[in-house]
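Now for my pick.
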Amino acid sequence: MVRYALAGDMLGELSRNWWLVLLRGIAAIVFGVLALVWPGLTLVALAFVFGVYALVDAAALAYAAYRSAPVGRAGLVLQAALSGLMGVIALLWPLAAIVALVFLIGVWAILTGVAEIVAAVRLRAHITSEWLLIFVGALSVVFGLLLWFWPLEGAQAIIFVVGIYAVIFGVVLAVAGVRLRGAADAFVPPAERGRSGAPDDAPVEDYAGGEDFGGDRGGLRPDAGEEPRSGGRHRSRRDEEPPEPPEAPGRI
C-alpha cells in the first residue's frame, strides 16, 4: 500500500509539472536540430551547445524538485546536479579533453536513462503510456554505451549520433508532457481518496428513504415473502403489531 501511495504522489507531481517535462523536451529538440543542421559544427561548438542545453535541463529539474513532495525530491535533485555539472564542464573546459567530454556525455546519458526507466516502473500501475519513458530510458542507456565504447569513431559521426538522439529524446519527452497535462485533471491524490462518502464496497443505500439495495443493516434481513413497508424500509419483527391480549374469562 505504501508503494502505491508513493507512486501516486510521484504521478501527481509529474502531472502538475507537465510543462517542465515539455520544456525539457523542447530544449532537447533544439539542441538536436542545431547539432544536425549547423554547417561545419566542431566538437568544441557541440560542447558549448550541449552545455547550454544541460544548464536549461538542470534549471527545469531544480524547479521541479523545489515544487515536489519530499518523497521524490532526492532523485530530481540528483538529476539536476548531474545536468548542471555537465553543463558547467562543457562551457568552461571544452578543450580540456574531447574524449573526456564524450565520456561525460555518455555517463550523463546512462544515468538519465536509468532514472527514466525507474520512474516508468514505479508509475506503470497508474499511467497507460509508461512505455514512452521506458523507451527513452533504454535509448539513453544505449546511446551512452555507444559513446563509451566508440568515442573516437569520428567527430562528425559523433555529432550526427548526438543530434539524432537529442531529437528523439526531446520528442518523447514532449509527448509525455502533453499526456501528463491531460492526466493532471483526472488525477486524485491518494490522501483524498475515500473522503467522498461510504467506502467502495459498502451497499448502495437510499439514506433519505432508508431503502437498502444490498447487504443488511445491523444484521437484520427481511423475512422471506414479507412485503416492505411504506417509505422503503423492510418490515422486521420489531415492526409487527403486538398480538391482541386474550379475552378475560366471564364471571360465573
Observations:
- Residues 2-190 form a domain with the Serine Threonine Protein Phosphatase 5, Tetratricopeptide repeat fold (CATH 1.25.40).
